[in-house]
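step 4 of 6: structure.
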Amino acid sequence: MTNNSTSWSKYYTPKHVAKDIVSMLPQDFNPTKVIDICAGSGNFLDAAVKKWNDIKAVGIDISLNDINKENKYTLHQMDALNLELLSNTIKSNSEEVKVVLANPPFGKLENSEKYLNKKKKLNSIHNEAVKIKRIEALMLVSNLKLLNVGDYFGAILPENFFTSIRLANFKEMFLNEFTEVVIGKKEKYFSSSDVKTRIFIGKYIGSNKSIKLQNIKSKLLIKSNYSLHRGIDNSKLLSAKSIDNIEVVHFSNFKGIQKLERYYPKTKGKERLIISKNDTLILRVGRNSGFSYQAKKEYINKYVSDYFYLLKGIKLNKKEHQILQSVLIKKRKGVATNYLNKIDIMNSIDIVLNRRRYLD
DNA sequence: TGAGGTGGTGCGCGGATTGA
DNA sequence: TCAATCCGCGCACCACCTCA
């Protein structure tokens, strides 16, 4: 869904996934129309037509180069993020029972504000989608626009939709529009990518309650007797050794083998990022994110890099390290790269500490 | 020689905080 | 008060390596 539409083609919905999603819809649901506004190669439409022979199929995409024109689908080449154009193209008809299917593009969307229609009364979920600048969020808003109460929506959504803090408010608003929600397991559906996704299915009910958006960051203010710090930004690390510099523990290897020589100037105010005895290093990002271990002797009095969160103020025993690690690994987030955020790590530490209190 | 596997990232963005 | 700086988030990643 860009000018360079071929770049998205590797993310076309695999046939078997389209079939799975269609088969996950209730057996007694018999739609008269299927719409896919990110039609791509048309696999969703094919799967729907195969299941419901008489269904009317409508496909929209910014490029219709890869869809089989021999099928008698109604096709529109257009930018589905343009809500006004979308509503003018797909007229709402209360007689129809619809299933709307989508494998939206994922990614950052610059200039998302251009999709706001300032003439109309501002729609809060649309505003939120524009604010977070994610193309999948705006595409979901476009999909919502097509739904009437009782219709079903099925989609492949990126993992961050379900786990990211930045998208949390949007997710809450979106889920509020549905009932009978089914969320699939985390899967890599696209062989050419590391991207992790989940299937979403829901029955549209429309939003009728106002949502109180939570200030998620306020959770960071939880008082505790430990402190957790992210290490020094990797891009600011120096390769050259000098008398004024302190060595930085900088690697991404769960065995704890220090591999990269990096340094950082001794800086007032950064003392919290210097490793002490009994501190715990938690790998923040990458395949090994979630691995944690007690600071080795050779790390002491060195800085810690951006690969880690440094846990200070409590000493964990071997068993507690194991528990912390297994909890952290389950909390990994990320579309294409695993990572952990501070809230997740703090929650995981709390689990370990609660266990300690219980045993005491 | 290229596809799939494995180990490892640099940095832009935007909100929060600092300090002039 | 507001510009500068800090800091946390998160990447439809990125760059090798291995092996058929």
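step 5 of 6: annotate
 - Residues 108, 133, 166, 191, 217, 233-235, 251-253, 259-260, 285-288, 306-307, 337 of chain A lie near DNA strand B (CB under 10 Å from a C1').
 - Residues 6-214 of chain A form a domain with the Rossmann fold fold (CATH 3.40.50.150).
step 6 of 6: archive
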